Amino acid sequence: MKSITVQELHKLMNNNEQITLVDVREKGGAGHGFN
Amino acid sequence: MVKIEQVSADIVRPLRHKVLRSNLPFEASIMLSDDFSDSAHFLVKKDGIIKSVASIYKEPFEKMPTYKGYRLRGMATEPSEKGKGFGSLVLKGVVQYLKNNTGAKILWCNARVVAFGFYEKMGFKIMGDVFEIPNLGAHKTGYFKL
User: Chain A residue with minimal CA distance to B97?
Assistant: First the structure.
């Protein structure tokens, strides 16, 4: 994962577009992105 | 882009126990419905280290039973990393997951008194009276409309 600064984190809190969900469960979904 | 990972329950339990159940045996961090198919667990890492975790369970909000509800539990951030936004990020991941995958209309939780500020900042409404949960302290109920 990319390292980010605290300031970048605070900026991200107001922007849902800058997160991505990734399913990394081993059973039934390893490495499968669901969005 | 920050990656929020959906993981199995066993991955989130160590931080959940450390932050929320440290006065109890590790087994106290295992929720009955952790492995239900409609439960989900999330975390955010930095430099490969888990910084914040959260879990959701399909459970109606008794104050608004007509809405499809999910309960937020086990929201925990590494103590030395509080206030840096990791909890906000993992909660954003939870909300995105619920919107994309469940049709849920309400996310609710029993929030510790010390965490009210965090939840309100994130858009939760805190309601009702303070109540005591044995071994876990004073709480209030909060909800977020999805």
Answer: A21
